[in-house]
Amino acid sequence: MSRFEPVSGWLQQDRKGHTLPQGLYVSEEAFHFDAEVMLKSVWLYACTVAHVKSPGDFFVFEMGSNSIIVVRGKDYEVRAFWNSCRHRGSKICLEQRGRAARLTCPYHQWTYGLDGALLAARSMTEDFDKRDHGLSPVALENIGGLIFICMGDNPPPIDRVRADIAEQIAVYDLAKLKVAVQDNLIEDANWKLVMENNRECYHCDAGHPELIGVLGTYGFGKGLPDDGVDDVVDDSAYDALVAAKREEWRGLGIDRDLIEFPEGWWHRVARLALANGAVTQSIDGKLACQKLIGPFTQPETSSLSVWTQPNSWHHFCCDHVVTFSLTPLAADKTLLRTSWLVHEDAVEGVDYDPDHLAALWRTTNRQDCHFSSINHQGIASDGYRPGPYAVEEKLVEDFKDFYVDRAKAALEQASA
Ligand code: FES
Ligand SMILES: [Fe+2]
Question: Has residue 218 got a pLDDT over 90?
């Protein structure tokens, strides 16, 4: 694969405990390699079941030149198909989200069922068999309501992720939620920098005054019991807070130990105690929706967070869920899609105000967008040299190691 020779060279230069070589962040070669090879070899988070709540609801997930339709069938199954018509290849769904009784290609109106079967194609030869021209499926896994897709031919194992995530998020019952707000933010930074920024709170004290007022900084890489970081960082105050909370969590059946990227796997799950008496992740720590979700009958001062490599993170609160996915658009452009979910019966303007619901993470996203962008600009300079991660940046290193491992494996497979 001579086209990706530079990428192979940069991967060889990667140094343990340090940021990546410049080319892997800023070059066109690395962008194409990521979008066409590496990211096709892994599971990517696309959306939740609440984004495709009813039969006919579709959600289009795009990465590089690829476009995938996630759609709920009449049988309530959620499936994924390539967004490319089996006639002459036109894109079929042009909207990012929508609802349709059938999927009709806008070019010559070939029409597909929600299960991908070709239903109508005018003026074809007599020997044309519709059964041979259904939409091409894409691998999809529903993990407790989080939809993951894999565009490659050999999706990697996902069973441990399912076992560790599905049961813990099941109590929030994503199928009973609805999408109240969705933001699409385009960041001027490579997708790996947006991910790295997400995996540490080393920048939170100075960068996110609103966020740390509600979440504190523990659990976002700064240190939790058993993750190896708390020996270095003094988190005794947080430990005491959690110790006081665990009994309450046990009563609700939601007390679990930290799961942190088990060997070779790509997920982290942590229940975090909120700071300063906050009952949810909102700008003022007050309920963002009056209709509570899951097992909660009264406000509860913790949230469950799930992080997956290489493109998502999610926070589950007693009154709403917020989920984040990112996809690379160009070497220096990344789409961060944030969705806020509330109880399906919650009424806008009565139970929740969309602006209040979204304010905390909207503010935080804008701050992070700035950090990722100046990070990218500095790395693009001739003066850049890979720098060392701090102890508090252990989860950044976990992400980087995942990237390098999977990139090397995908490169090898593509060259074979
Ligand atoms: S390309 Fe879709 S109907 Fe012709
Ligand atoms: Fe941040």
Answer: no
Residues in CB range of 308: below 8 A, 6 or more apart: 43, 45, 148, 161, 266, 267, 268
Which stretch of 91-100, 227-236, 354-363 has the lowest confidence by average pLDDT?
A: 227-236
Pick from 107, 118, 122, 135 the residue to mutate for probing ligand 1's pocket: most ligand atoms within 8 Å of its CB: 107
In a domain, 37, yes or no: no
Average pLDDT, the chain: 94
118 and 263 together in one domain: no
- pTM: predicted TM-score of the whole model, two decimal places: 0.96
Check which CATH number belongs to the domain holding 151 and give it.
2.102.10.10
User: Are residues 194 and 287 located together in one domain of the fold?
Assistant: yes
> Ligand 1: distance of its center to the CA of 84 in Å?
9
Rounded to the nearest 10 degrees, what angle do helices 354-379 and 191-198 cross at? 120
Q: What pLDDT, on a 0 to 100 scale, did the predictor assign at position 203?
A: 94
* Tally of domains in the chain: 2
397 within a domain of the structure (yes/no)? no
Whose atoms come closest to the Cα of 107: which ligand? 1
Residue 328 lies inside a defined structural domain of this protein: yes
- DSSP, collapsed to helix, strand or coil, labels residue 319 as coil
Query: What does the DSSP assignment read for 291-308?
Result: S--TT-SS--SEEEEEEE
Residues 108 and 169 in one domain: no
pLDDT tens digits for range 41-92: 999 999 999 999 999 999 999 998 999 999 999 999 999 999 999 999 999 9
Residues with C-beta atoms within 5 A of ion ligand 2: 368
**198: containing domain:** 160-379
Residue 330: alpha-carbon gap to chain centroid: 18
186/268 same-domain check: yes
155, 176, 211 - which closes a domain? 155
Q: Which of 100, 129, 155 is the last residue before a domain boundary? A: 155
Q: What percent of the chain has pLDDT over 70?
A: 96
Residue with the larger pLDDT of the pair 242 and 390: 390
Task: Give Cα separations from 218 to 230, 249, 270, 284, 359 (angstroms).
Answer: 9, 18, 11, 19, 21
87 CB within 6 A, ligand 1: yes
CA nearest ligand 1 atom 4, residue: 108
Residue 236, pLDDT > 80, answer: no
Residue bearing the CA closest to ligand 1, atom 3: 108
